[in-house]
Specification:
The protein is α+β, with helices and mostly antiparallel strands and about 625 residues long. Helix 1 (about 15-25) crosses helix 5 and helix 9 (about 340-365) crosses helix 10 (about 365-380). About 35% of the residues are buried.
Length: about 625
């Protein structure tokens, strides 16, 4: 097909139509952000041109003065945003404006709640700001040409934001992009120089390119730069307002909400770089996709190099957004070079330390604010003790857990809080992992700890199993699971209780062996315990075996895990166990032993292999007890 004949009408991707409808209705109360988004896109286009021109300066086409221009026409009721950045080819126009070519599309739509207030920030995170044009425009026309292509390979894209769009090849002498918005009825408020300038200064003053508008005044001619046109991070912190920081964050993070907190620092000496890093208020919809963007833009001496430079921040801090500007890296650096670069390694270590310090300062100064952070990002931060070799303890100081201290599901207890409350003679930090808080709080493994007033951390995130496998101690105190190995409270064990337990356990070998034979290969061992006070039995893992909760998690992911036999621990003082000891009927004894095992499994949130069999045995037991009572009553 010849260039002149390449005109066609194409349908929007289904997700685009859904997104347009969602955006128009969700963001209508904040209509002015359309200009911020278009200017942000224009700024990105200029950054990309600078980067590509490092290898081929002919892309500048003898025009190196990059700028963004905003115009309006009261008679035609149009607003125009133009840039002389990289521009787009025909294929790029279709990919960028007609489809959503992102691996996170499904996560995005799954994350939508239907609540407009909650969904607003997701729209921004998804990076589809161009479509905000349709909040104010009944029709949008985009004319563009990619740098390096001939003037005859320009492209015009037109749509009313409904079911389809038209695209045609046009003659365009200049590279870059021109977006014309034909405003809807009732949008005349934006056909005003003062209004547009106010929006630009409010949202886009930080843009490093000059944003130009026609100079006001009858006798005035030429253009006027509306914004500061200086890279925000390069300015003195004292000269930057909180509002400017917030608007810059929204630009780099594609977010509609203010950040939770931020840090702006400049490192000088042998290594020189500036970092401006932000902690978002809410988790990104694709936060759990470790292959997704990390949100750090890399600049070298104010020249944009790349988006989402994952080498600048570890994966367990992937929620961080911002920019890093280095004076020491070469302008032609690539992602491959980044992977083996000492300067990058030093910047990464420095940024990591600063973010951890920022979070610790927040935790110390504003517990409520930090609780909000932990609720959004705590599970990701926990990955740090698994991946980081040198910062484990510093990362662990930031962890928050529920515990038996107040029996609340609120994750507010730090490891330092726990250690401050440790009893005299306590040698370990005790914890319990479970599928959910209710199961953890009601676990029979906690009985002796509650009796003695020993605090136990309640860990209910799936990742906690891996955390405890890598975090063996904190501040010199070992972390010890209350569901693994034999319980040894050391100096916390009462001598009277030890003597009582020893006396009670004498002669129990026959009972434990008889139970073990009844249960067969279901258990590795049966033994008496002092960890129970009100329950008759519980299941524990051997010291070196995989924990039962971890085994359950791995099986749920489809992994083939060799079966690990649990250890059944019985409470020799419990009436059921004492009754079982006196049972002479082998068949009835076996049924009681199986019930004992099944209820221990249920109490830790496990699933029965044969629920119907359990119910049958339980009913038979009830009938047996009822029969015994009737006999005693003489009926």
């Amino acid at each position: 097909m010849s260039i002149e004949a390449r005109q066609e009408t194409l349908g929007f991707q289904a997700e685009i139509r859904q997104l347009l409808d969602l955006m128009i209705h969700s963001l209508y109360s904040n209509k002015e952000i359309f200009l911020r988004e278009l200017i942000s896109n224009a700024s990105d286009a200029a950054d990309k041109l600078r980067f590509e021109a490092l290898k081929d300066d002919s892309l500048y086409e003898n025009d190196t003065d990059l700028a963004i221009r905003v115009e309006f026409d009261e008679k035609q009721k149009t607003i125009t945003v133009m840039d002389n950045g990289i521009g787009m080819s025909r294929e790029e126009v279709i990919d960028n404006l007609g489809t959503i070519a992102k691996s996170g599309t499904r996560q995005f739509f799954n994350a939508l709640t239907g609540d407009q207030n909650k969904d607003v920030h997701l729209i921004g995170q998804f990076g589809v700001g161009f479509y905000s044009s349709f909040i104010v425009a009944r029709k949008v026309e985009v004319t563009t040409r990619r740098a390096g292509l001939s003037r005859g390979e320009g492209v015009r894209w037109i749509s009313t934001g409904e079911s389809d769009y038209t695209i045609e090849t046009v003659d365009r002498p200049k590279r870059g992009t021109r977006v014309v918005l034909c405003l809807r009825d009732g949008m005349d408020e934006f056909l005003n120089s003062y209004r547009l300038r106010g929006i630009i200064r409010k949202y886009s003053d930080h843009i490093s390119l000059p944003i130009l508008m026609i100079r006001e005044g009858k006798d005035e001619k030429g253009d006027e730069t509306v914004n500061s046109a200086t890279a925000l991070w390069a300015r003195n912190k004292k000269d930057i307002s909180e509002e400017e920081y917030h608007e810059f964050y929204k630009h780099v993070a594609h977010d509609f909400e203010d950040p939770l907190t931020y840090l702006h620092s400049k490192v000088e000496g042998k290594l020189e770089y500036t970092s401006l890093l932000f902690i978002p208020s809410h988790a990104q919809f694709d936060l759990w996709d470790r292959e997704q963007r990390h949100g750090i833009k890399l600049y070298v001496r104010r020249v944009f190099i790349m988006d989402d430079a994952e080498q600048l921040i570890p994966a367990w801090l992937r929620f961080v957004r911002g920019v890093v500007d280095s004076d020491d890296l070469p302008l032609n650096i690539s992602r491959e070079i980044l992977q083996n670069n000492r300067t990058i390694d030093s910047i990464r270590a420095g940024c990591t330390k600063k973010v951890l310090g920022l979070l610790q300062d927040m935790a110390d100064r504003d517990a409520e604010k930090y609780a909000g952070f932990w609720n959004e990002f705590g599970r990701v931060l926990k990955e740090g003790v698994i991946e980081a070799k040198d910062d484990k303890e510093e990362i662990a100081r930031l962890f928050r857990f529920a515990s038996t201290h107040d029996d609340s599901d609120k994750q507010a207890v730090s490891l330092m809080n726990y250690m401050e409350r440790m009893q005299q003679g306590q040698k370990a930090i005790y914890y319990l992992t479970a599928e959910n808080f209710v199961t953890a709080r009601n676990s029979p493994h906690l009985e002796v700890f509650r009796k003695k007033g020993i605090e136990v951390l309640l860990l209910t995130d799936p990742i906690d199993e891996w955390v405890t496998a890598h975090l063996h101690e904190f501040d010199g105190k070992p972390l010890q699971s209350v569901t693994r190995g034999e319980l040894d409270l050391g100096d916390l064990e009462d001598q009277d209780q030890e003597d009582q337990a020893e006396n009670t356990n004498q002669g129990q070998d026959g009972l434990t062996e008889r139970i073990r034979q009844s249960l067969g290969d279901k258990v590795k061992e049966v033994r008496t315990t002092n960890r129970l006070t009100t329950s008759p039995a519980c299941l524990v893992s051997d010291e070196h075996d995989m924990g039962r909760h971890l085994e359950k998690i791995l099986k749920a992911t489809g992994q083939s895990i060799p079966a690990v036999k649990p250890i059944l621990e019985i409470n020799p003082e419990h009436p059921i166990v004492m009754r079982l000891k006196d049972e002479t009927d082998d068949g009835r004894f076996a049924e009681w032993a199986r019930i004992l095992f099944d209820q221990a499994l249920l109490s830790e949130g496990g699933q029965l292999e044969d629920p119907a069999g359990f119910v049958h045995r339980l009913n038979a037991l009830f009938l047996d007890l009822a029969g015994s009572k009737n006999t005693q009553d003489g009926t």
